[in-house]
Amino acid sequence: xxxxxxxxxxxxxxxxxxxxxxxxxxxxxxxxxxxxxxxxxxxxxxxxxxxxxxxxxxxxxxxxxxxxxxxxxxxxxxxxxxxxxxxxxxxxxxxxxxxxxxxxxxxxxxxxxxxxxxxxxxxxxxxxxxxxxxxxxxxxxxxxxxxxxxxxxxxxxxxxxxxxxxxxxxxxxxxxxxxxxxxxxxxxxxxxxxxxxxxxxxxxxxxxxxxxxxxxxxxxxxxxxxxxxxxxxxxxxxxxxxxxxxxxxxxxxxxxxxxxxxxxxxxxxxxxxxxxxxxxxxxxxxxxxxxxxxxxxxxxxxxxxxxxxxxxxx
Length: 314
What we know:
By secondary structure, the protein is of the alpha+beta class. It has helices at 17-25, 53-70, 82-90, 111-116, 120-135, 150-166, 175-184, 227-243, 276-301, 308-313, and strands at residues 4-6, 33-36, 74-78, 94-104, 138-143, 189-196, 199-208, 212-220, 247-252, 263-273.
């Protein structure tokens, strides 16, 4: 059970800044805290590397004992796999729900087949967005590490840095990281580049799983209407259809994805707060938050862009 000792909450995608603020207002220290997660990656997966329920329980018991003995404020697990969620709850951790938006491949033959499943208005809007990108003279290439040059990676990192700075944040990763990743796992990476007049203007970085494409970072040097959706979402959908991948996960948050064929999916995190008073307060908050998240998920599910007659048939 890999654990990180953290002095901040950056790069987690499950936000606990308000909890840290509550600790500070009560004269207590929220940091350091213990984190069980994959850094910078809001993707559900195994967090307890064990083959049996008894072993998972033993890992959690040891982690909780370690948290209490080392003086940290808390222990957190982000995006655990479904079989592990019950183990965390049984061990006394509090569950927190959140919503992401995922695309599913229903055996589409091409992008137009996917659009045919959508309502007329949504289908028309997506076609308009894609047409604007084409009319701007932007064309796309899918590059695997064997085809991508260092100049391609340098361009992507430039775009990646621009995106973070545009959101008044600091980029976590650098060129050396991406080059090492391309060398270590070339069969798992996809770089999408958009070109205008032969020069790159936009890029997106994706990781290829066994049956899922994971969209991670994107950026651009120029603004063009619809370019974000084309680079991050529509090109990824076309790649999944071409490669017969079952799903595309475009990262955390983003209700704008709903209108583009991505459906709400519940994800979980698990939390243990050492201080009993603040543990009760946060537990109360999580109960109320959970009710809100579930209601929002139901409302979003009713707003999917797919044709109602197809839903009835299904």
